[in-house]
Amino acid sequence: MNHLLTIGDLDTYQIQSIFDLSEQLEKYPKPLLTGKNIAFVFEKPSLRTKAGTEAAINHLNGNVISIDANLIFSSGKAVPFSSRESLQDAMMNVSQWCDAMFARVYSHSTLKKMADYGEIPVVNALCDQHHPMQALSDLFTLQQNFGKDQKLTITYVGDANNVAFSLIEIGLKFGHTMKFSGPENYSWNEDQLGYFSLLAVEHGGTFIQTIDPFEAVYETDVIYADTFISMGEEHLYDEKIKYFQPYQVNSKLFSHAKSSAGFMHCLPAHRGIEVTDDVIDHKNSWVYQQAKNRMIVSKGVFATFLAGETTKIKTNGSVKVPSQEGTSINQISKRSKP
Ligand code: CP
Ligand code: NVA
């Protein structure tokens, strides 16, 4: 069974193949998903991931079947009889009619259970820890702007969240220098830092972490931002916001990057909070290009999973994050030659 739960489920060759196929399908559409039903189940809101992917599946002549999240995920509730059926039964039923499941969930462990219980590929549409579909279209966007061969410095400023993890993961897999800047008390754990170090060593990239956003963005090629408060964390707003205010991407911070630097954001953006209007509306802001690419890259992903158009995805689930001792939390820089 092939699933796409994390960027760790793909190697660099497979990612580049998905990009090449995405470009081809955007230029020369083919009805590769004729007769295929893709189940969408979203436990959290979505604009881009849902509509962009549905548009991609429509262009490939596939069908989307939207499933009410309460029918799939209610089993976690404590009240007896509040759930209609177990996740296992729901997944086995959907597997009888559909060819893949595209799921946005609160917990990564739910996705792993869905992959285990069902008989169809599960593709992660965002969970608490990962956003692989976003990271794929972000790297595709970077390749459109810089070409496929240039090694870049990409600086993420803000929360150590799902989007940041998948972005750092894919950037390191392609040998880029990935910088991260956020408050120390909302940073990566030792296992995650160890995993970034291993990826850097394996692929010849670098991971650098600093709490100083100005140091982080100095001479960078790209600044990337995401919300300070992710879905499901709304109750933490007062607690978190005071730590994150220094990490707003505004024109002062942006001016410390290269003059040609781009600005990226997965969206939705909270204008005036993590980013100011003058940056998100800057001529070098690529946020709508990223959004368009959510659709284009979804074509390559679903054609790969369901039409066998390129190499199959290799693993059966989530990335294993190895632990590594002795990794310092404030500044990590691992470089190796390929
Ligand atoms: N970037 C992203 O995943 O957007 P949505 O939450 O609107 O899908
Ligand atoms: N980190 C954000 C990403 C939204 C696309 C969240 O999880 O809400």
Structure description:
The protein has 338 residues and is an alpha/beta fold. It is 41% helix and 12% strand. It folds into two domains: 7-130 and 291-330, Rossmann fold; 135-289, Rossmann fold. It has helices at residues 12-27, 48-59, 69-73, 87-97, 108-117, 132-146, 162-173, 190-203, 213-217, 237-244, 251-254, 277-280, 287-307, and strands spanning 37-42, 63-67, 100-104, 122-124, 153-157, 177-181, 206-210, 222-225, 262-265. It has a five-stranded parallel β-sheet. It has a four-stranded parallel β-sheet with strand order 2-1-3-4, with helices on both faces. Helix 8 (190-203) links the parallel strand 6 (177-181) and strand 7 (206-210). Helix 1 (12-27) crosses helix 13 and helix 6 (132-146) crosses helix 7. It is globular and about 55 Å long. 47% of the residues are buried. Residues 311-338 have low confidence and may be disordered. Phosphoric acid mono(formamide)ester (CP) binds next to helix 2.
